[in-house]
Amino acid sequence: xxDVSVSTRIRQLAQDLGxxxxxxxxxxxEIQEVADLCGDSLGLSVAAAQSQAPVIVFCGVxxxxxxxxxxxxxxxxxxxxxxxxxxxxxxxxxxQLRAFQADHPGAxxxxxxxxxxxxxxxxxxCCTSSNAVEVIRxxxxxxxxxxxxxxxxxxxxxxxxxxxxxxxxxxxxCYTHHRLLPExxxxxxxxxxxxxxxxxPECPPQVTAVADQVLSTGGMAKHVAASSRSEFIIGxxxxxxxxxxxxxxxxxxxxxFSAMVCPNMKKTTLSHLLAxxxxxxxxxxxDPDLAAxxxxxxxxxxxxx
Length: 305
Ligand code: 13P
Ligand code: SF4
Known about the structure:
single chain; alpha/beta; Rossmann fold; 15 helices; 45% helix; binds 1,3-dihydroxyacetonephosphate; binds iron/sulfur cluster
């Protein structure tokens, strides 16, 4: 079957099942094109929480589908390629978090949404890259000690925005974003002096320091749509450059570093998506008590937002 006929079949099956297909902005172009909605972690979580669909098919990495299941327990949540994980999320286990908390009695715990349900269940508050600064500012006072897990780069970005807060980072990082170096930004700026530089807060602090804007992928989409500028340098996973170029054919986008590819985000193919719908396969399952405990911090985030 050609890609077009596979996509047509996917849309037909989704309609027959009453399924909604959600895709992260880093997914392959053909997956983004066949999805009902593309977005960042927050946008897709909100979509899952508000969805009335009996079936949610989540094209992304595992923690994202798991978050959708936590927020929509009544729905069947399918992940077409369950082997698509997030190495950043895997950088802290529940056991490691318990030990971290034991070393800091009385501290509050904030988990980035890129974490397992077990880590979320031990956290006071969840956040995404688009709301981390706002929800931490709203939820905690500067006298609180805050353990931030698992991404040290997002923790550093939040700490720079909230200099009075006491943020203690876990040591995790995203391999894909960690590869972006400040010299690549400087080279891209020299080659494209009119362009505005947008980077993701998972990039190292030396990179966020030389960017014009530090934004989640959804924040980048909104910023570009509202901007009168016509040229941008994008410092995040390369799927986002496709998303922006697709939505804004009148604007020009340059990769800050074209080797920024998340292999896990590229694992989901049209064949996986078709098989998931045909066989209703790879449903996310979660212990109800664990899901309820993990939901508290996510709900607290959504309520603050
Ligand atoms: P966004 O929520 O900004 O899309 O980020 C998710 C992610 O995994 C970034 O690597
Ligand atoms: Fe995880 Fe990084 Fe891939 Fe995002 S880009 S899903 S943080 S490994």
